[in-house]
Design a protein that fits this description.
Length: about 110
């Protein structure tokens, strides 16, 4: 059985998540929007959902399950979908060496 780490969406972001339009493809997640709470042992994300359904803090839309392999699945109203942590934009590298000198033709 797999062990899933539960990342809970912070409370002030639940309402905007609820009314956001559904988009296709993998969701880009910001780590600052989540807090890691507990783990659950289950064979699939859906089994984890049903195991947590009767718990004191069940999974809610916006919560994320992270498997032992690092794969992320976000819980939406339609089920679990693929997700990934958003990477910070990499700075553009500066060219090496001095800029080329302008040649003057007479």
């Amino acid at each position: 059985m797999a062990i899933y780490r539960i990342h809970r969406l912070k409370g002030h972001l639940r309402q905007p998540f609820r009314y956001a339009a559904h988009t296709g493809g993998a969701a880009d997640l910001k780590p600052r929007d989540y807090s890691c709470s507990e783990t659950v042992e289950a064979p699939t994300p859906y089994a984890a959902y049903f195991a947590m359904r009767g718990a004191e803090t069940p999974l809610e839309p916006g919560d994320v399950l992270e498997s032992e392999t690092g794969a992320l699945r976000i819980f939406k109203f339609i089920g679990f979908e693929e997700a990934r942590w958003a990477a910070a934009a990499e700075p553009t590298p500066e060219p090496a060496g001095p800029p080329p000198a302008a040649s003057v033709v007479l």
